[in-house]
Design goal:
The complex is a heterodimer.
Chain A: H1 27-32, H2 34-42, E1 45-54, E2 59-64, E3 71-76, E4 92-100, E5 103-111, E6 121-122, H3 125-133, E7 139-142, H4 146-151, E8 158-159, H5 162-168, E9 182-185
Chain B: H1 2-11, E1 17-20, H2 23-29, E2 35-36, H3 38-43, E3 47-50, H4 54-59, E4 65-67, E5 86-89, H5 93-105, E6 111-114, H6 117-123, H7 150-157, E7 164-168, H8 172-176, E8 184-185, E9 203-207, H9 212-223, E10 227-230, E11 234-238, E12 241-245
Parallel strand pairs in B: 2-6, 3-4, 3-5, 5-6, 7-8, 7-9, 9-10
Antiparallel strand pairs in B: 11-12
The chains are: A alpha/beta, B alpha/beta.
């Protein structure tokens, strides 16, 4: 099945090179939720995107807060830390920690799971691949930054970054008929 | 992320919206091919490989292509830089997809295909170049944000740059096996409490064994008003004899 994917005539959409990310686009929402972030910090939880991880130094860097409020925190972990594998660079994590000698130590690490908006359903790889292969009429949208899209995306996918989506509502790319299927994807749960 | 976009589409009145939550990484993990944009093929810092025969490549190819016929791919695998984004094409979909599978299997992480192969390229009005084929791969990795160039690092490590110091953030255990003669050694997890040992008026080039910890350390230092950059390279030290490999 995989061998026949290129049968589909590819769309030759040039990337618009407006940089915004899968992980960075929630600036406004995060600003509005500022009090909540402070509250969270008191409960000894860091939520954010993992920007660095070293197994040798047993340390994770996590970026918490957004925009001007953003800061990177180094959290140590040890053999008792649960779920260390859930901390992967570029993905969102929730790190419970405790202070030891003035330094944060991770106790439990969980992946931050994406929530689907109401009325939106998930699609899995196999079903998506089958839909692309069969030439089913639908619109596939890559929400990642244009540079990532340009370097390699799914067959038939077009690029609308989240910022662009906010600005244009997908005009010119999303189908005119609003009852047609539209599938969005990005760089995985972030 | 994609869920925000899906929400926006829903709000804009689209009734049939789905999200492929696993996303592109999962697509690649499940061994499906990905396709580069034509602009990336034309101008990206890539290694572009023409998998067709040398004769076909000579008769007309995408500009900047290197000719490696599919049958020779295995023999030439060592010549292809592991860190480079690789874009493949052929005139045969199966061959291109075999190429991407083979390279991924060999550990190449950034491999994509030209949309519609050479036929798709031509059809979309892409430029074609003719003449003797190119077989040498010339690719130079561009420095990422906050990275120090190997040449600058080496100069500082050998004590020839008075304006820069080398900071080694490996663990004490690792450092006990050897370190650069001129390097200051502070393990990453002690860095926060030992900032006063470092100068603010000099450039600080941070290294570890690969670059992951150095990157974290440099971010931490820059946050505190230092002028730090990090080295992405494999560093191995025995005594004061260190080897650095890009």
């Amino acid at each position: 099945m995989k061998r026949t994917l290129t049968k589909i005539i590819p769309f030759l959409v040039m990337a618009s090179f407006l940089a915004t990310g899968c992980t960075q686009e929630n600036t406004q929402a995060a600003k509005a939720a500022k009090p909540a972030v402070e509250q969270v910090a008191k409960k000894n939880v860091y939520k954010g995107s993992v920007v660095g991880k070293s197994n040798k130094a047993k340390s994770i860097s996590i970026k918490v807060g957004k925009g001007a409020e953003a800061k990177t925190i180094m959290v140590a972990f040890d053999d008792n830390t649960k779920g260390v594998d859930h901390a992967t660079v570029g993905h969102a994590s929730i790190i419970n920690y405790e202070m030891r000698n003035g330094k944060p130590y991770a106790t439990v690490i969980k992946p931050k799971l994406a929530k689907l908006p109401e009325g939106v359903t998930e699609i899995k790889t196999e079903d998506l691949a089958e839909m692309i292969e069969s030439g089913k009429k639908f619109t596939l949208i890559d929400s990642r930054p244009s540079g990532r899209y340009a370097a390699g995306s799914l067959p038939t996918a077009k690029n609308i970054t989240v910022a662009k989506m906010k600005e244009t509502k997908g005009a010119g790319i999303l189908p005119e008929n609003k009852n047609e299927l539209v599938v969005f994807f990005c760089g995985g749960p972030t | 992320m994609s869920t925000s976009s899906a929400g926006l589409a829903k709000k804009a009145g689209y009734t049939n919206v789905r999200v492929y939550l696993d996303g592109e990484p999962h697509w690649v993990k499940d061994e499906y091919p990905v396709y580069a944009s034509n602009k990336f093929v034309a101008t990206g810092n890539i290694v572009l490989i023409d998998l067709r025969s040398a004769a076909k490549s000579a008769a007309g190819r995408i500009p900047r292509s290197v000719s490696i016929a599919y049958d020779d791919l295995e023999d030439r695998i060592e010549d292809i830089p592991k860190k480079a984004p690789i874009v493949l094409y052929s005139d045969n979909a199966e061959e291109a997809e075999d190429g991407i599978s083979d390279l991924r299997y060999e550990g190449f992480k950034k491999v994509s295909l030209v949309k519609g192969n050479i036929q798709g390229w031509t059809k979309s009005g892409g430029a074609i170049e003719k003449g003797p084929v190119v077989t040498d791969i010339k690719w130079i990795r561009k420095l990422g944000k906050g990275e120090v160039a190997l040449a600058s690092f080496n100069k500082a490590a050998s004590g020839q740059d008075a304006g820069a110091i080398v900071l080694d953030v490996r663990t004490k255990d690792e450092v006990s096996g050897g370190k650069f003669k001129n390097a200051v050694a502070i393990p990453l997890d002690e860095l926060g409490s030992r900032l006063s040992e470092l100068p603010k008026d000099k450039k600080i080039y941070v290294h570890c064994t690969s670059g992951a910890r150095a990157d974290m350390a440099a971010q931490e230092l820059n946050k505190n008003g230092f002028k730090a950059s990090f080295l992405i390279a494999n560093v191995n030290c025995e005594g004061n004899d260190c080897t650095v490999e890009d």
